[in-house]
Design goal:
By secondary structure, the protein is an alpha/beta fold. 48% of the residues lie in helices and 14% in strands. Strand 5, helix 3 and strand 6 form a beta-alpha-beta unit. The radius of gyration is 19 Å and the shape is globular. The termini are far apart.
């Protein structure tokens, strides 16, 4: 079946749509003939270009989410696809991380998806549509030093995704999870910047951050172009019987590390940090 076949009347909502994988997904769905609501806090006001609606939405703010859906409901009464790409990363030693920063990343990466999914429910229910939650390869991997809060949010999102899938099955709503690895987006630049700031801030790990940054950087150097992600997103969005989980460019090295017993993982990481 061609991508745009029987999809002319479908509607989709994408958060985090101003950049990166979210922008790529929104443009892809538009090309497939869907009406797309591209939502992001970067959009200061609502606007429209043919079937693409740029919707101002801050997923951490209840009022902003409600306002966005008030606008969306003036245009459609159903959503066939709701996909939460909005997310941020964090770097730093756990005990040197401000409480506000820890709350912020959970608010965006976990509660942000929940706010949007909850607000969209009646529209998705009418369409018997699907939710696509964007996790990460780190959603099922053990955390590494100085890069723990982001995996923690993705582990939480994975559990949220399972619960949502089981609760919504009775309504005929599909719930899918995608676990992207490294792709060439702004997150790569954000990672380098965040680690740089963490190195300046730390009082406990001055000689350790650079080593972990180099290790993580070697994985990000394997980032693929965002177009490679669309092949996976297409399956999650349009398969009649989608899988529960889809992977995209996951790291073989990190997967191999996580196969090992945890004590051995700890020893290997410790050796990297003290060399």
């Amino acid at each position: 079946m061609k991508d745009n076949e029987n999809k002319q009347q479908q509607c989709a909502l994408i958060t985090g749509a101003a950049s990166g994988l979210g922008k790529m997904a929104a443009n892809y769905l538009l090309e497939c003939g869907l009406t797309v609501f591209a939502c992001d806090r970067e959009y200061k006001e609502n606007s429209r270009e043919k079937n693409m609606h740029f919707v101002s939405m801050d997923v951490t703010n209840d009022t902003s989410v409600k306002s966005a859906f008030d606008y969306i409901k003036t245009i459609t009464q159903k959503l066939d696809i709701v996909s939460s790409f909005a997310g941020i990363i964090s770097a730093g030693a756990l005990l040197e991380t401000d409480n506000d920063e820890a709350l912020r990343i959970f608010n965006v990466n976990v509660l942000g998806a929940h706010r949007v999914n909850k607000a969209a429910f009646e529209l998705v229910r009418r369409a018997k549509g699907r939710y696509i939650n964007i996790s990460s390869e780190y959603g099922i991997l053990n955390a590494v030093p100085f890069y723990t809060l982001y995996p923690a949010t993705k582990h939480a999102l994975e559990m949220y995704n399972i619960g949502l899938r089981r609760e919504l099955k009775m309504f005929g709503i599909k719930v899918v999870c995608i676990r992207p690895g490294a792709f060439s987006t702004n997150i790569i630049n954000d990672f380098s910047s965040l680690f740089g700031k963490a190195i300046e801030k730390t009082e406990l790990y001055k000689t350790r951050f650079d080593k972990m940054k180099a290790l993580m950087g070697s994985e990000f150097n394997k980032a693929k172009k965002t177009t490679a992600f669309i092949k996976t997103f297409k399956k999650a969005a349009f398969s009649k019987k989608p899988k529960f989980y889809y992977k995209a460019n996951n790291s073989f090295k990190m997967k191999l590390l996580n196969i090992l017993p945890e004590k051995l993982q700890d020893k290997l990481i410790y050796n990297i940090l003290i060399k």
